[in-house]
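Thread: coenzyme a persulfide complex, take 2
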Amino acid sequence: MRFDLDEEQSEIRDMVRRFTAQEITPYAGKWDETNHFPREIYHQMAELGLMGMTTPEEYGGSALSRLSNALVYEELAKGEMATAVGLSVHNMVTGSIARFGNQQQRRLWVSRLASGELLGAFSLSEAASGSDAASLQCRAECHNNSYILNGTKMWVTNGGEADIYLVMARTSGSKGAAGISCFIVEKGTPGFSFGKTEHKMGLNSSPTRELIFENCEVPLANRLGEEGQGFKIALSSLDGGRINIGAIGIGVAQAAFETACDYSREREQFGQPISAFQGIQFILADMAMKIEAARLLVYEAAYKLDKGQNAGMYASMAKCFATDIAMEVTTDAVQVLGGAGYVRDYPVERYMRDVKVAQIFEGTNQIQRVVIARSLLGNIRK
Ligand code: COS
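Output below.
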């Protein structure tokens, strides 16, 4: 067992660390305040090979290991969580088409997604189906050589900005997961429009939008995988996505911790820096300890996914633990900074607002516990 990064992993981490420090961190506060989606950053990330990270090299991807992926997301999230999340969703789409698509679909979309020409979005949730994802109602009826989509999808990250949407829709009358199929829907397809943009407490530079399908005709050739395979495509893609979210949680927590440490050394009260008080030292020590534990779990989950070893359970553990501690750590960072932490002069209030959603999206942390328990005990639901 090794706990150090190899040369390639260190190089990737350092490259993304430099990129984040130069291109993201200085602007993140402004993007948050103005709800600005920084599309230009995605073109720069494409040049660094980050838009097709789990995609084979023959389709223009960089075929990185899951651990290298985690390092990338961790570093990006130190600058801004929203950009890291947008990239993770994009890579989930690129990776899913590369993995489940036929030759024609890979040729048509994967290299253009990996090059950054196209941006991807993933849509499983609906207004009435969040945690119970298999109850989704958006319909896709087969007519000759196409499917007609009707219904709405919600909470779509990159919604409105993305060019390619992976859409889970029901193709058969059967109620559960077995009736769901996955479609590649291009922006601009007649009958496909966007609903309201959500006004969120954080992650403001990441657009979250509703998708509306009204008799939207999608060619048969755009169905990803077989009919009825959509739920499994979605959930197995989420295995990787959840590890990415865990890594993002660590990145945000690390940034909050570093801000709190720096502030505690500078801020003086009662004639000494507040870092001299054990009350502050213990908070900082707990923050560091939680981050280290979460980092190890995320890296292990990434390793397990590469090896195909019960990855779903480890992905859920990593996502749940890392984002729960990220919420605690960012909240503690605000506490260490006191009044200064509550205002926008420092980024810790943004970290805290942003990271809350990581306990909710890509499966709530309660659902992650369901996945873990089922993996340990079997599905004992009546
Ligand atoms: N990879 C591949 N297949 C999977 C899978 C995974 N990680 N998890 C489940 N499946 C398969 C199961 O094996 C099952 O297949 P069979 O019927 O052939 O055995 C099928 O999918 C249905 O699984 P299950 O019976 O466990 O489905 P449930 O309806 O009980 O739902 C939960 C399971 C609750 C875990 C799932 O709905 C979930 O993760 N919900 C949260 C959704 C989510 O993350 N939304 C965020 C979207 S992005 S913002």
